[in-house]
């Protein structure tokens, strides 16, 4: 069974869904700790469920803060780190400590609409469809290898909140599928990590 550390920054709705799936045995994983950069709803959900938590408030410089939160994560010896609505960028050195076993969900069909406002950007662009993606975190912004993604239509009367809620439903399913694949061996993160390193070498040449 996979040991998961989950990082959150907000209300924790996606984390709450993941927790329900793991505890119901629908995802072969256990959430062993939840961390955040601030006190938030996700931390409260974890505490109510009896899961160890930690909060490492952001303070510059980013590299030093990133190392502190990476140390907190590493103390739990997770198999996979899941960023679930975590809104801070970790330093490349901190990411490298867990790569390729750090995953993130993103509310767009990457490489379309990367960044913190993927849903808003899709609406502003007049897109008729967007999507959801699960990726391996790398040192860029939503640039890591894509493990799973699915299209989501944009409806004519969609608000940002409406569209985001529909995307979240897909994000949750995709994350559960990816974690199940890692757990049963059908997804090998090491292969994706090798692919990522080769891509970097080619870019450097």
From TrEMBL:
(6R)-10-formyltetrahydrofolate binds at residues 62, 87-90, 104. Pathway: Purine metabolism; IMP biosynthesis via de novo pathway; N(2)-formyl-N(1)-(5-phospho-D-ribosyl)glycinamide from N(1)-(5-phospho-D-ribosyl)glycinamide (10-formyl THF route): step 1/1. The active site is at 106 (proton donor). Keywords: Purine biosynthesis, Transferase. Residues 3-179 form the Formyl transferase N-terminal domain. The record marks 142 as: Raises pKa of active site His. CDD domains: FMT_core_GART (cd08645). Its EC number is 2.1.2.2. GO terms for biological process: 'de novo' IMP biosynthetic process. GO terms for cellular component: cytosol. It catalyses: N(1)-(5-phospho-beta-D-ribosyl)glycinamide + (6R)-10-formyltetrahydrofolate = N(2)-formyl-N(1)-(5-phospho-beta-D-ribosyl)glycinamide + (6S)-5,6,7,8-tetrahydrofolate + H(+). It is an enzyme of class 2 (transferase). Gene3D superfamilies: Formyl transferase, N-terminal domain. It comes from the Bacteria. The keyword Transferase applies. The keyword Transmembrane does not apply. N(1)-(5-phospho-beta-D-ribosyl)glycinamide binds at residues 12-14. One of its GO terms (molecular function) is phosphoribosylglycinamide formyltransferase activity. Catalyzes the transfer of a formyl group from 10-formyltetrahydrofolate to 5-phospho-ribosyl-glycinamide (GAR), producing 5-phospho-ribosyl-N-formylglycinamide (FGAR) and tetrahydrofolate. Belongs to the GART family. This is Phosphoribosylglycinamide formyltransferase. The lineage of its organism: Bacteria, Bacillati, Actinomycetota, Actinomycetes, Micrococcales. The gene is purN.
